[in-house]
Amino acid sequence: MAWDTEATRSRLLDAGVRQFAALGFAGARIDAIARDAGINKERVYRYFGDKQGLFSAVLEHELDALFDGLEVEVTTPEGIGEFTGRMFDRCLARPELPRLLIWESLELEAPVAADSRQPVCAVNATRICDAVRGLGRVESEHLLLTAISVVVGWWGLSRLAEVVLTDPDAVAVRRQMVVAQMTALAREAG
């Protein structure tokens, strides 16, 4: 019987997402990832070279998914708020995404898959620039980074949310605030 290379690779990536999102690069173990995938750990080395190779592959696959099909659609400040709300929804559906973004920044010297991620960010920065009169390229890039930070921060600062917010689990309220605040920031930036 032939070995299903793609299925094995996919199972390892899925297990890597779970383990790396929960524990980061330093905390995740190849043995645990292999067990989680139900595959011999030798396959990790065969398909990804080493733990760093698997971590990079997981980040590239998952972080590409963060913006896949997610673009600023309406060229108004409200469109920027709506974009941020859709990003929030994506992270809510896949909470591993913000955790992986945080681990990438904490544990790597450089971003993973920058060549494939930068063009998507550039498109959104351009749309933000078009949406807000008087906003230059540099300012629109910073507004995009702010939108990402506002979304990711809820997952990355969950213990702080427990201290600051009366109801840190009020997802609908948090989403509403993210959209309203990013819309207001976009209006103010213009």
From TrEMBL:
Pfam family, one: TetR_N
UniProt KW Amino-acid biosynthesis keyword: no
Annotated PROSITE patterns: HTH_TETR_2
Keywords: DNA-binding
A single GO molecular function term of this UniProt record: DNA binding
Annotated Gene3D superfamilies: Tetracycline Repressor, domain 2
SUPFAM superfamilies named in the record: Homeodomain-like, Tetracyclin repressor-like, C-terminal domain
GO BP terms in the entry: regulation of DNA-templated transcription
Record flagged with keyword Cell inner membrane: no
Entries under PANTHER family matching the protein: HTH-TYPE TRANSCRIPTIONAL REPRESSOR SCO4008, TRANSCRIPTIONAL REPRESSOR
Official protein name in the record: Transcriptional regulator, TetR family
